[in-house]
Design a protein that fits this description.
The complex is a heterodimer. Chain A is mainly α. Chain A contains 9 helices and 2 strands; from the N terminus they run H-H-H-H-H-H-E-H-E-H-H. Chain A has a two-stranded antiparallel sheet with strand order 1-2. In chain A, helix 1 crosses helix 2 and helix 6 runs antiparallel to helix 9. Chain B is mostly helical. The radius of gyration of chain B is 21 Å and the shape is globular. Chain B starts with a helix and ends in a 16-residue tail after the last helix. Classes of the chains: A mainly alpha, B mainly alpha.
């Protein structure tokens, strides 16, 4: 199952690459287009699942996380050697003038993809930490299926404060500059993926993609 | 020879007189909001919806809120969104609410000069007095920043600000939004956002050589955005052909993930990151509902309610939110 999906992803990415190759991409440019296409394809598959439109499949999410990891971090950065940008490429020269940030975003993607693999088991709901269960009230104890340790929390309503809306403070649901600073041991500060909903991690991945695309990719 | 010189002098004098007349031509219509009290939360929400925060804050360089944004590079020059914090010297702290209303809805500065259309005031033209007061209240919550934003660098002859009055006469098309009978509240809310403050057309509609919006090509895409970017067509048929639905567009306006799995970059990534991701889900769905069911020309059952005089759906200009 797992191997089949990986092979499928590779096959799909090859098809995407073949299409792109018609635009004249060769060598390392084609290689990174293949990588981007592979990631695009798994994002396409995951997005409906993360919206609850199709049934959640933990193993599909973990397979997708593996694909994303394999195209992120150093594996992505090494495909961007500093060289003249051919017409077939969407890369912007800022990649090399701002290399540290590009590399950080690439690594951030890898760490979030790793996090998605960990968080996949949680599905779309944030599990209540078992270490601090809410004391069940008499009323709740009598209700079936209301086990405090496994009860999913509803996603909090998305409302922002005036300070968040006006840009005076970073909003609570995001890291300030979208670039999460990895600590020395390679973890992302402040996120415990074991108690994070998979769709939350997925959205962080999309934010990382958007940050990178807005800075370093031509066009939208 | 003498006659030629006289003729040249006469034409020159006429030119100067013409410029003087245009320069002294008053373009602002007076407004009287008095001391209308505003709601800072509603104003802050509107500031996000309308792109005020995205444009006037240089977030990429860690700039303070509303203290001036990243330059917008256009064929006419580089426009720097100014400091609109309440600082009385470098911001707009010494303005009155009425002056703010004229600037926002009419595109005219307190000194009577016109703004460049890089400031999308055309799309704010239909904001209600209450919307303006709400925005004004929201701006007062921002700390004043006593630093001038960089100057815009506009090339000749576009740096002659009086010429903007002629531009206005030729191309200005202020938003006028009327609810449409037979469409859902979501659709009407979407119409209000898309054609009003969210100013989608500012990028997704082509512009003529002088920067005027091509009304006949509304939302049909723009291949010549500042910085060389392109904005795709977002007409209903184009969107449907690319697999957009209300659900995946609302999701995309929050996360940036498109139906094909790609993730927005360029200007649209900024729009999502600094704008639509802050909106209520109902508003994102409203935008999608409208865009996926835009009235062609003419609109289906497109009777403007204000003109039809139908009970129960009175045209109330402004940006009342869905969250009441």
């Amino acid at each position: 199952m797992f191997k089949n999906k990986i092979l499928g992803a590779i096959a799909l990415s090859s098809l995407g690459a073949a299409a792109l190759a018609h635009n004249g991409a060769t060598g390392v440019v084609m290689e990174r287009m293949m990588g981007m296409s592979a990631m695009r394809d798994v994002m396409k598959d995951l997005a409906p699942m993360m919206q609850g439109q199709v049934p959640y499949d933990e193993w599909a999410v973990r397979d997708a996380a593996t694909v994303l990891q394999s195209h992120a971090g150093d594996n992505m950065a090494r495909l961007f050697p500093e060289e003249p940008i051919p017409a077939s490429s969407f890369a912007k020269p800022e990649i090399w003038s701002d290399w540290a940030r590009f590399e950080a975003l690439s690594e951030e993607l890898r760490l979030y993809a790793e996090g998605l693999d960990i968080a996949a088991v949680n599905g779309l709901d944030v599990p209540v930490p078992i270490a601090a269960p809410a004391p069940p009230s008499d009323e709740m104890a009598g209700m079936p299926g209301m086990d405090a340790a496994t009860m999913p929390m509803e996603t909090p309503p998305e409302t922002f404060t005036v300070e968040e809306l006006m840009g005076l403070v970073a909003r609570a649901d995001q890291n300030a500059a979208t670039i999460a600073a990895p600590t020395a041991d390679g973890k992302i500060t402040g996120i415990d993926f074991e108690v994070t909903a998979a769709d939350d991690v997925f959205e962080r991945i999309s934010q990382t993609c958007a940050s990178c695309h807005s800075l370093y990719r031509k066009g939208n | 020879m003498r006659g030629l010189i006289r003729t040249a002098v006469a034409f020159g004098a006429m030119g100067f007189v013409g410029i003087a007349i245009v320069a002294s031509w008053p373009i602002a219509e007076p407004v009287h909001l008095g001391m209308l009290a505003g709601d800072a939360y509603r104003g802050a929400y509107l500031a996000r919806s309308g792109g005020c925060i995205a444009c006037h804050t240089g977030a990429a360089k860690g700039g303070a809120a509303l203290s001036g944004g990243a330059p917008l590079d256009t064929p006419f020059g580089s426009f720097v969104p100014p400091n609109i914090t309440p600082d009385p010297v470098y911001g707009i702290g010494d303005w009155t609410l009425d002056q703010f209303a004229v600037a926002l809805r009419q595109g005219v500065r307190p000194d009577g000069k016109a703004y460049y259309p890089a400031f999308p005031y055309e799309f704010y033209a239909d904001l209600s007095d209450q919307d303006v007061a709400d925005l004004w209240a929201a701006i007062q919550t921002v700390p004043p920043v006593p630093v001038a934003a960089a100057e815009s660098d506009v090339s000749f002859p576009f740096n002659m600000r009086w010429g903007l009055k002629l531009w206005r006469a030729a191309y200005l098309s202020p938003a006028k939004i009327s609810p449409v009978m037979g469409q859902s509240p979501d659709w009407n809310r979407g119409q209000q956002l898309v054609t009003g403050p969210a100013h989608c057309a500012a990028c997704h509609t082509g512009r003529n050589m002088l920067g005027g919006l091509k009304e006949s090509e509304a939302l049909a895409g723009n291949d010549n955005l500042p910085g060389g970017s392109k904005a795709p067509a977002i007409l209903a048929a184009d969107l449907a052909a690319k697999g957009w639905t209300v659900a995946n567009m609302a999701y995309s306006l929050r996360t940036g993930v498109m139906p094909d799995g790609d993730v927005f970059g360029g200007g649209m990534a900024e729009v999502v990151q600094a704008g639509t991701s802050f909106l209520d889900e109902a508003d994102r769905e409203a935008i999608a509902t409208y865009l996926l069911d835009q009235p062609g020309t003419p609109a289906p059952s497109g009777t403007p309610i204000a003109d039809a005089g139908m009970a129960g759906m009175v045209h109330t200009p402004g940006m009342q939110m869905n969250v009441d």
